[in-house]
Design a protein that fits this description.
7% of the residues lie in helices and 60% in strands.
């Protein structure tokens, strides 16, 4: 096939150009789907997506490429192309990278670029699959000298919302605009740091805007040499078109893009407490990712019912406390809130969440673990008046290196014109060496998903097994429910699917 030949050619080129003492690493993801969305008439659509990453390291120099391709039976948006290439050289004191890169300034108020390994998106409306990556094509530099660290960035940003196939077929560029910026951080007395961050962004090649932020990080208890307890603090304030003098006011005039983030963490033995605060106004730049201050859940229903931060206007906080109880497990509590306006003519809206989780790991049964949770949230930004969620996960070790896991969850949601329930159940049986098998059932009475007025059921199975030491094969079959999923702090939309999906991950 064409895509396989092109990928092999890339590997051959890297290998041929490598010195004798070079190290070559290859990661490949192949995902084949047979099926379609439940609403589509054609039920036997096939799609094959491949992502190959090859990296070469020799001495102080490193280089790499990524090849992606997506071909389907209807060949509506086919592509096969190099989507990432980079060259890097340097040592711990100075590193320069040219090509595609990901990085962050401060805590992401001005800029953050990143990727989610293994996450494959399907661009809605055009049916073109691609790996999620929000990166920059340009040059970045990191330097360190004594207490000072410097970072410089330059290039064209990629929003991560356009498939390479759409770029190739429709001429819609993935990389647009230009940015240049950097940061300087200085370590002061007893590991306290202060930082200055700057970004100049031209999203359309014509309208240029400048942003600046300042930050500090310190542990006052550590500075006082108090042992056994820690209190790390961090704060960063950013705004657009700020001079040095008016930046210190920490309150921009009405209508000025600005962002303020602060956090405090108290760690004392088995007890931990974290508190965060946010105030964002007109700060959706398209190339930044300020902290959302919304808990990322490990349970399924709270994860898909999460809140997406409204960077145009939202302020709020998140407080979370955890306590380890010796011999029994731990308890966790989380309180989150965000207030803002979606329009000057409409009243303010609110997101609020209260979450409690109990994790039992009793010494009397060392092979058993039980997690129970209760979650209540309301999200007026999405017209959700209230959600009540409850669930639990029971995990237990069995003979012959087996582990069983049962996950049961329920949600009742209230909207202005509808009330409905969601149920989720999964059972997983895992072997330490052979892999795992899982059964998943979901039910919803959401009117948006129930065309005939009856509750809708989703059934699926997942088989996963290592093949040798370099390959992992996963087979999904059944029905996948559409909705929001969050991974590593990033939320994205999962499209509905019915059929079979084979995924092979290989590492060399």
């Amino acid at each position: 096939m064409i895509r396989t030949g092109a990928a092999a050619a890339l590997v051959v080129l890297l290998t041929a150009a490598a010195p004798a003492d070079a190290q070559l690493s290859i990661d490949n993801l192949l995902e084949i789907q047979v099926g379609n969305r439940p609403t589509e008439a054609a039920r036997d659509r096939t799609d094959a997506y491949e992502q190959l990453d090859a990296a070469l390291a020799f001495g102080l120099t490193r280089a790499g490429v990524r090849f992606e391709s997506d071909h389907s039976s209807d060949e509506s948006v086919p592509y096969g192309k190099v989507t990432r290439r980079w060259f890097e050289f340097g040592d711990p004191r100075l590193t320069v990278r040219a090509g595609n890169y990901t990085t962050i300034l401060g805590r992401g108020l001005l800029h953050r670029s990143w990727e989610l390994p293994g996450v494959v998106l399907d661009q809605s409306g055009v049916r073109s699959r691609y790996g999620f990556m929000r990166d920059v094509d340009g040059v970045t530099l990191d330097a360190a000298a004594g207490p000072v660290t410097l970072r410089g960035i330059e290039g064209r940003p990629n929003s991560g919302e356009v498939s390479p196939g759409v770029e190739e077929v429709y001429g819609l560029p993935r990389y647009s605009g230009t940015l240049i910026g950097g940061q300087a951080q200085v370590r002061t007395w007893r590991d306290a740091t202060v930082g200055a961050h700057y970004l100049r962004f031209t999203p359309d090649g014509q309208h240029q805007r400048e942003y600046g932020s300042g930050s500090f990080a310190l542990d006052p208890l550590g500075m006082l040499k108090i042992r056994g307890i820690a209190l790390p603090l961090y704060a960063e304030y950013a705004r657009a078109d700020a001079s040095f003098s008016n930046w210190w006011h920490l309150r921009a005039p009405e209508g000025t893009p600005s962002a303020l983030y602060a956090s405090a963490n108290l760690i004392a033995g088995p007890f931990a407490l974290s508190a965060e605060w946010k105030d964002y106004e007109q700060f959706r730049l398209g190339i930044n990712d300020p902290p959302s201050l919304v808990r990322e859940h490990t349970f399924v229903l709270p994860n898909r019912a999460t809140h997406l931060v409204h960077l145009e206007d939202e302020e709020g906080y998140q407080i979370e406390a955890t306590m380890r109880i010796g011999g029994w497990g731990s308890v966790l509590g989380n309180l989150s809130r965000g207030d803002g306006k979606v329009s000057p003519s409409l009243p303010p809206r609110r997101f609020a969440e209260r979450y409690v989780e109990l994790d039992f790991e009793p010494r009397v049964d060392p092979g058993g673990r039980l997690a129970l949770y209760y979650d209540y949230n309301q999200d007026q930004f999405e017209a959700v008046q209230g959600r009540d969620m409850v669930g639990g996960r029971l995990t237990h070790d069995l003979p012959r290196e087996l582990t069983a896991e049962l996950d049961v969850e329920h949600m009742h949601e209230r909207r202005a014109f509808a009330k409905f329930d969601d149920e989720y159940l999964s059972f997983l049986l895992q072997h330490a060496r052979w892999g795992s098998a899982a059964f998943i059932w979901q039910r919803t009475s959401d009117p948006a998903e129930n065309i005939d007025g009856l509750p809708r059921h989703y059934l699926a199975g997942v088989l996963s097994a290592p093949i040798g030491q370099r390959h992992v094969v996963t087979l999904f079959f059944g029905q996948r429910r559409e909705g929001i999923a969050c991974t590593a702090g990033t939320c994205y939309r999962v499209e509905a699917f019915e059929g079979a999906e084979l995924r092979i991950v290989s590492r060399f």
